[in-house]
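Researcher: Please generate the 3D structure of the following complex. Treat every line as part of one assembly.
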Amino acid sequence: MEKKKNPIIFSSYEPRKGLFDEVFNENGSAKSIYKTLFDLYGGHSVNDYEILNSKAKASFFNQGITFQVYNDEQAQEKIFPFDLFPRIIHPLEWEIIEKGAIQRSRALNLFLWDIYHDKKVIKDKVVPLDLLSSSENYLHQMMHLDPPGKIYNHISGTDIIKHADGQYYVLEDNIRCPSGVSYVICNRTALKRALFGVFNHYQAHTVTNYAENLLQILETVKPRGVDNPNCVVITPGRFNSAYYEHSYLAKAMGVELVEGQDLFVENDFVYMKTINGPERVDVVYRRIDDAFIDPLEFRPDSALGVPGLFAAYRKGNVCLANAPGTGVADDKAVYTYMPEIIKYYLDEEPILNNVHTYRCSRPDELKYVLENIDKLVIKPVDEAGGYGISIGNQLTKSEIEKVKVTIKEHPRKYIAQPILSLSVHPTYIEDMGSFEQRHVDLRTFTLLGKDRDFVLKGGLTRVALRKGNLIVNSSQGGGSKDTWVLKTE
Amino acid sequence: MEHLYQIVYSAKNCYEEVVKEAIWQFQILPLENESQHIVKWSFQNSLHTPYHVSINGLGFITIRLHPKHCFSEIEFKFECELVKKELNPFDFLPNLEPQDDYGKIASLAFKADNEIYLRRTPLSSLPSVHQSIFIFDTSQSIFQNLRDLNHWVYNHLHFTVGVTDVTTPLKDIIEQRQGVCQDFTHLFCAIAKENGIPSRYVSGYIHQGNNYFGDLQMHAWAEALVPNVGWVGFDPTNDILVAQNHIKVCHGKDYNDCSPLRGVVYSNGANETEYFVQVQSSQLQQ
Amino acid sequence: MLARVANNLFWMGRYIERSEHVARYLNVNYFSSLDAPHELSQSRQFMLRSMLFMIGDPINDHNLTLDEEQVLFNTALNQEKEYSIISNVKAARENANCARDLISTGLYEAINRFYHYVLNYNTDFFVKKGLYDFTVHIMEQTAVLRGKIRGSLLHDQVYAIIMLGINIERATQIIRIINAKYHDALLAMGSYSDEVAHSFEWTTLLKCIESYDMMRRFYRKTPTSSSTLEFLVLNGDCPRSVMNSLNQICKHMSVLDRSKHPLKDSTSFLVGKLRAEMEFTKVESIACDVQGFIEQILQKLVEISQKMEQEFFNY
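Model: Done. Output below.
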């Protein structure tokens, strides 16, 4: 039998020029923060590493941590691909991210309050009226309604990237039902199980305190006159792609996970059907989209919602988190005004950078976009999950022409941004049996309550597993990494 | 002078298969305002299920019913006695300078405040081919233009039952030139919005004494916001301004905001629903 | 606890228990038939028919020749057959999925692993060589699950509902197995030197319910129809007896319904009544009309299950 010497896993790592590598310097040495980690990982043979890797995968599989991907034909159950090499964030960098995320959440909350009340931001010409009037997510039912604690976006997910210039940029604020936080915790668990040895060498913040903070935030927005609020998580059901997360959060908070059919409304109060009869519900962390929460008020064909829920909310007898109608501010067109919105409401400079955005609704900017498509990313303003995105320099000529036609037909529906060079991180590629550079981003999770806020120290580092791919969403075949926010020394 | 109205709304729903559970929400209770005052009302159903009164997202009172027993047939009867004041729709001082009004509706603050009733909904937006079907004459006052529009819609469409339903697109209605009060109203609103005037769909009852169209069913008309005057009601189905014969229930962007009955019924198979409305009036002595 | 989720937990318990009984019935019948003392009891067709009878898919056509591999596949791994082991395990896991936030991670992971094991079991291997390996694994895994249920859940309402599911299912399966074996004993009557009372099928029956050894210990005699029935139905110390299941049902019912004097139309009342009846039943009265007894008790167990649904799971 031939005896083969196992190559070391980093040996074939090839840094490409022009990309910002988070781990390695240009001369090939590991950056100081990664030095220890690199030494610990670098010692593994491919065989050893494969064993660890398959164990970690089995751990996800046995825990039933799977999601569904929707193809044209049917939903498929898959494991969320996970990379064992963690991402490390320096405490000083984290401080900026954390402050910036809170700043954005607060500004968006004030923005939502304003556009559902006096609309001063529009009358003062900071943002155009068109942003509301053409948004299908602007809910008139929310006009002049005061949500408990004046909070709309209790839970925000901010997508941040590190550009080639080494600076962080926000790509998107997700304030409808951002998901992914359960994977942050699972990734940590899986990494700890597989490579407990490396943890001793770093002082990383915990991520398991998310659920308790979420519960505390939800309790701050309890309805008037309730001492011990009964909180629940409402899910569209076990066939939803994020069902694992819904059940995880309910379990970790120790509250019930309900479906629409488990709740009913009587006299504008919400109850759940338990084995001991009806029990009142005060705060609903809802993971159902606005249009489906109440068939009597929104989509009448919704079988997921609770008839009469909105009327109960309107009366202040129940709190919904996030509030209905937050989707209007989650719109990519609103994103482009974030620097102005932050200045207007908080009188502060934005802490985190916004990516420069061209609005196709403006004739002059549309012209620039049409002429420079090859240098831009074109995004629809109202699609989630990475769908409908075109990356200019990856399109053929005929594809470019097609995109141009689509944009010209509905200019309001599209924005364009310069092609950002997302930073890269060494990621183990099973097919190659070695580490390779892959693009990553970071989703952070911010909670906003009455007189209270919280940013999870950590986040979901999403990896684009296909070489050169810039889209990191799980529905587009992305994976993730554990993310360590180091404690200040 | 005041009128006393007696309104009866009755409905019957039959289901092919047994219904396990159902929730209905009625939007049929007249609005209380300066000109309308409810003396008394009652709501009964053949299952004797108690009802609850609630308020919907746009702020109107609803009656909600939630039977929890199996059934295959249910009847509802709503009765209401209401006093309506005599109204003179011309009872305001017209602005002598129409240009001021046009300036006002063009202002950003006005548009922002009235965004909801300027918004094009699928039911109340003019198809692009008919965008300039009716252009306001800006030398005339807004009120005069709206009266002309009312008349124009009345002439453009022929009241015909059964050719359209609540999902018929406005394009078909304009081209077929046929429809019922919902269609007249949507067309009026679409054109008014196209000309920058906030306008809304109103659902209500009409007293049938004067041979107006729209009795036996819920009626629909439009309200348009005239600067310095307020919301003025136009009934394009009957080519009149809204007065004491119109009893308003609610308003919204279009029919979808105002449908008299919304329901969630847990049952398979077909169902049949029918309803009718009766409005009787007597004059009250002062 | 949500009524819907309680229903899921109840059925999770039932499906776990059901998988075990089906697996053991397959295993015991198949392997004891190989060296059974009589021609008929040794017959493959007879054994396959018995399997299908117990599982609820009886073959009434006497001339039909069954395909062994097909029958084994249907009872164990055919997802299109509602009664197959794989369908039961799948249903158990789906119910667990719906109640995931209420059960321990350890229990959920065990159910999930169990499901993947069954799902990935090679069909061809199973019908040719894997019957023993597969059924033994099912029996062991269900024991592990019961251990996790007992050892990792709070012994509160969640636990009570799962245990109610397990015990109602156990009582039902025991009766069904008795029924199947009684049926076999009747069929085999002609070929035995002995009568029904001393049929070889009683030994198989005891093995199907994992009670043969203990039964021998208790009676120190070859099982007969009446001693077997007495042991499996009336002996409260036998963990697999109907009586023991009813005792368990009563105990767990009292967690859900704490009233001292349960209402006449409550589940508690029905359960208590059935238990009292059984307590004062003698084996002689069962033995004189086994068929009648089986039908009657199955009916009562169905009533209890339906009443539970009405009282607790109605959502």
